[in-house]
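Lab meeting, action items carried over

1. Structure of the two-component assembly. Owner: GW. Status: complete.
Input record:
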Amino acid sequence: MSDLRELRYEPKAIEPKWQQVWADEHTWEVSNEDDGREAYYVLEMLPYPSGEPHMGHLKNYALGDAVAHFSRRSGKRVLHPMGYDAFGLPAENNAIKTGVHPRDATAASIASFQRQFREWGISIDWTREFGTHEPRYYRWTQWLFLQLFKRGLAYKREGSVNWDPVEETVLANEQVIDGRGERSGALVEIRQLEQWYFRITDYADRLLDDLDKIQWPDHVKTMQRNWIGRSVGAHVTFRNEELGKDYEVFTTRPDTLFGATFFVMSPEHPDVLALAEGTSQEEAVRDYVRRALLESNEDRGAADKAKTGVPLGRSVVNPVNGEAIPMYVADYVLMEYGTGAIMAVPAHDERDFEFATVHGLPIRQVIASAPGAEDELPLSADGVLVNSDARFDGKPNREALEQIVAWLDGEGRGRRAINYRLRDWLVSRQRYWGCPIPIVYCEQHGAVAVPEDQLPVELPDVTDYKPRGRSPLAAVEEWVATTCPECGGPARRETDTMDTFVDSSWYFLRYTDASNDTAPWDRAVADSWMPVDQYIGGVEHAILHLLYARFFTKAFHDIGLLSADEPFQALFTQGMITRDGAKMSKSKGNVIAPSAYVDRYGADTARCYILFIGPPDQDADWSDEGVEGVHRFLARLWRLGIEVGRGPADSPHAGDFANDADAVLTRKAHWAIDKVTHDLGDRRFAFNTAISAVMELVNEAYRQRESASPEVLRFAAATGASLIFPFAPHTASEVYENATGARVWETPWPAADPAMLVADTFELVAQVNGKVRDRLTAPADASREDLEALARSAPNVQAHLEGRQVVKVIVVPGKLVNIVVR
RNA sequence: GCGGCGGUGGCGGAAUGGUAGACGCGGCGGCCUCAAAAGCCGCUGGGCGAAAGCUCGUGAGGGUUCGAGUCCCUCCCGCCGUACCA
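Predicted assembly:
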């Protein structure tokens, strides 16, 4: 090898060469025509093009590309597309600051992403590429909006909305975190505005139930379940006789109705002031409500906040026992959930208990853990009814619950009910850089859909991007003023744009038929690819994007546009790349760009390292030393490929080995094929151990290279290249060509020869009382008796048997013998 | 509070109930070299021991088992999500 010592692994020469081949030959383009191979759709979440790609992108696309390559070489017809989620606030905020049109900033960023994806060697079908900001795409976003509108799934109504005072737009519930805007971090205000919504709540049950049909990580399913927040219980009507008004409450525990000792309404409840009017409480209530509404969501929601509230000076009648119980207003009751009013059962609810204690209200136990038990209150666990009613006392509470609800139902005072935490999806945004809502308003006809042949409603240019409490589009009078499609009379365009999550809720469908200009997709084409077989992205989208995309898919299924009713059959959520244990951020100054490593070590090193660093679903800390190690490994593989020269690279057959080195190395190669195939299969994503298996193969080849025959060394080099191809496609292509003259991506995924996975001998572990006392070489086909005898013959085993009585012997063929002594 | 994930050498991490620490980083030693870099080869959990070997060791404590990082129970710690949801 001395003459090769000076040879240097030069990714800068290797990588562009192969990228050129793939581009010239359109290698990764895939037809929509069925050719007998199984269709397989692998997709990574599309990037938001802002600035340059970061490490999270590198990880995301390195993961997806490995899946795509492995699937292709396993005989599948693979769809692996790319696009850009290009509408959104960062580009617009930049426009406000610099005056640069968001389209220009976005185009510059997209160009950078395109260039780097090519430099990374990601195997993308570029013929299907688009940005969601292009009219040829958002034309169909608008079309889909109108399909939902026609079916009542998109509607406009006035209601309380979250207003972000910094972004100057409304936000969806999903975009408000701890009472603050997701992007701005500003405390959101509640405003009454007329806004567009999607009726996602119609799908609550299916979104919940169908989680059982898809292969997603449990924690993501759990987050979606919690977000939908389905609770089974009852609606029960309490009557206020003075005003003659009925108030319904939602409760999950109608079995505790006999323990209700007061009734509480939210400060936002529309009837609170009217109820208190004319009572001695009128002023106190007005005061309390005013203060409660001023308080921020954050302060109000504070975990251990004392329970405040004031009496309304009125009472309601408990329908189960006719008892009049006092009414209160208190801010621990939320208007957004249930009916904004609750029955309070202090003996069996912690919050009610706390309130009753502070305000000196009666606490009546109606469930006991066992008959006659002395329970500490509040008791939320199941038990038997007490102090309730002769019909129910002594009954298990779950049984009593059903009977009480049935009884109330008969009386017309209650019924079974299911309540959800999920709210309809608010999609209006008072911002410029988004998809215009294709609606016009006519004095005569109200909100009218823009006719489909007039789509897209193109986003006009504006000079001032700054939102001023209304969309910047509202200032473009010549665009706003239009005619009504119904009557031809004067009409005005909707000036709000859509939430960008609308754009990204259907992009995976457009990829299947991206150049279709008569429909968003052809149903037969979409059906041939959908659902996405493997979706890959960050867990930060567990609720928003992943829930919205599921809703859209189900709605389109119902409309008849699609067979699939789930978008992503399998989901993999990748962990974050950190630096010095912390999330990379500009403020911490610990951001490192992929380009720095790609330029210095090559894309293959960067891609391999990011997959080698640890299990991909976990967070991982970037280390420059680790990068060097992976680079050394690829260089060793590359040098091996040079050294072995070009020629046949077939595996020798068992028994045909010229020497021990050939046997050892051939077996190692087959072991590596088996290991890597297993680690890549069945959505295991064990890429870190797959790469280390190839490292082991290369290490073995170096150890054996003085004695192994050239053909076997070549087989080892070719196998190593073949196996590392999904992670380091350029180096793999180079090494494979150097060794065999063939193209690795045109070569089927290798299969391990089962005969090579077993050796003639194995290392037998000899244990005494479970402790290893010796290691012996044993024939692979030895009988249990032979193995036991062999183990007993080992001197160090005998030393530990000395003077003891053997009570049992465990023999695990191919592994160990354990002799149990006393 | 609740839900989820995790805790293994100096570090990142491997281990279908069967040799704990694969692979990589770092460290040590050797070869090559005038010297270095690069490369190549080897060693590398702790303690005792000249060695053979013995012994301890996967957050803590129990249990099941011939055998536990892995399964069960009780705790402790960390991270993520979520939270007055009736």
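2. GW to write a short summary for the group page. Key points so far: Residues 1-5 of chain A have pLDDT under 50 and may be disordered. The longest helix of chain A spans residues 660-680.
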